[in-house]
Amino acid sequence: MFSDDFIKGRGAQLNISNKFHEHIHEMRDDFLNYCATEGDESSESRTTIIETFPKSIVNKVTSPDVGMDFSLNPYQGCEHGCIYCYARNSHEYWGYSAGLEFEQKILVKRNAVELLEKKLKSRSWKAWPIVLSGNTDCYQPIEKDLKITRSLLQTFLKYRHPVGMITKNALIQRDIDILKELAQDNLINVAISITSLQEETRRILEPRTATIKKRLDTVEKLAQNNIPVSVMMAPIIPSINSHEIMPLVKEISSRGANYVGYTIVRLNGAIGQIFSDWIRKAMPGRADKVLHQIENIHGGSLNDSRFGTRMKGEGEFANQVKQQFKIARKLYLKDCEKPILNCKLHEDFKDGQMKLF
Predict the structure, then answer these.
(1) DSSP 307
(2) How far, in Å, CA of 319 to CA of 264, rounded?
(3) Strand ranges of the sheet holding 130-132, from the earlier edge strand across to the other edge
(4) Residue 165 CB coordination number (10 Å)
(5) Strand-pair partners of 72
(6) Is 71 helix (H, G, I), strand (E, B) or coil?
(7) Residue limits of the Radical SAM core domain (predicted)?
(8) Radius of gyration (Cα) for the chain, nearest Å?
(9) Average pLDDT over every residue of 192-216
(10) Comparing C-alpha atoms, which of 269, 341, 339, 257 is closest to residue 310?
(11) What is the pLDDT of residues 284-307, one digit of tens each?
């Protein structure tokens, strides 16, 4: 299935040039041949953690079609390595490649909790749901040691502030104790991202994420603890996971999910080159077919930045996907819907405790 030069355990198969750099670095064939002859590695495969101390942590989301108004990302870059990830492009702003370096160079916002607390105590701040992982996963592997996301959740609970989360990692189960307390006041909604029911598909699309079994178990455990949990089937990729809509929605319904959402794959900026290189190495027999189908969804291009169409696509395939989700929701999630989070408590907890007068 894989070509001979496929890098196992990573999503991106190359580091492309950063468009913001004055100088461009190219991996030449003669250098690669030299490395092969000498038995040297052409690049390091280890993950590097880089500490940062930003001045702010809550971001206003201006895009009208992403379903959130504010986001918070304790980490930049993501070791999960999902090949299609739209967040790859943002890594170029930090001076790194959207390819392998997005997975290997993880920026940690060490003062995230301090900045969030400052924001929530601000007199000018009016409570509105803040979504963790609007860009990169807040439960990626390094979180197991650093526990920044857990501390952020404790801060949201302290100030009784609504928070949303989206993750591909079963590590969220570690924090069920805090999530249960938030849920008691309708302050939390969790979305688990599940792209496929097939483990082989998961392994090549999202190489360092939790297994499908662990993610389905996570949906079930959250629901059993009365924590509102939905599922994002994102993205839908033609001829890779597009045939799984009905069985996936049926499965998550049986696990207790209250809603399912989706997006259709779009390959903006550097992601087009990264994905095209990946699929020719990971699925050489299907590469041309899949790329042509993606182009048909987005008006003949892999790249679509138009608000209103970029997330759902256009044409016959996009309409078929839309109808399948409509039918699936009617069959399996008829009386389910995402909760509207409680924004009324926070004002009385601005100082971290209930105001008595």
Answers:
(1) T
(2) 11
(3) 58-60, 70-72, 130-132, 163-167, 188-193, 229-236, 260-264
(4) 27
(5) 58, 132
(6) strand
(7) 73-250
(8) 21
(9) 97
(10) 269
(11) 999 999 999 999 999 999 988 788
Please state the domain count of the chain: 1
Ordered DSSP codes for 155-206: HHHHTT--EEEEES-GGGGGGHHHHHHHHHTT-EEEEEE---S-HHHHHHHS
For range 102-115, the mean pLDDT: 97
Let me know if residue 33 belongs to a domain: yes
- The reply to whether 17 falls in a domain is no
For the entire predicted model, the pTM comes to: 0.87
**How many CB atoms lie under 10 A from the CB of residue 46?**
6
Q: Which domain holds residue 253?
A: 29-338
- Cross-strand bridge partners of residue 233: 262
The answer to whether 47 touches 96, Cβ cutoff 8 Å, is no
16 in any annotated domain: no
d(CA 76, CA 94): 9
**Please, where are the H alpha helices in the chain?**
29-38, 100-104, 112-121, 143-146, 148-158, 176-184, 199-205, 212-224, 245-255, 271-282, 287-297, 315-332
**CATH number of the domain to which 321 belongs:** 3.20.20.70
Measured in degrees and rounded to the nearest 5, phi and psi for residue 70 equal -140, 145
pLDDT at 51: 96
Q: What is the pLDDT of residues 263-278, one digit of tens each?
A: 999 999 999 999 999 9
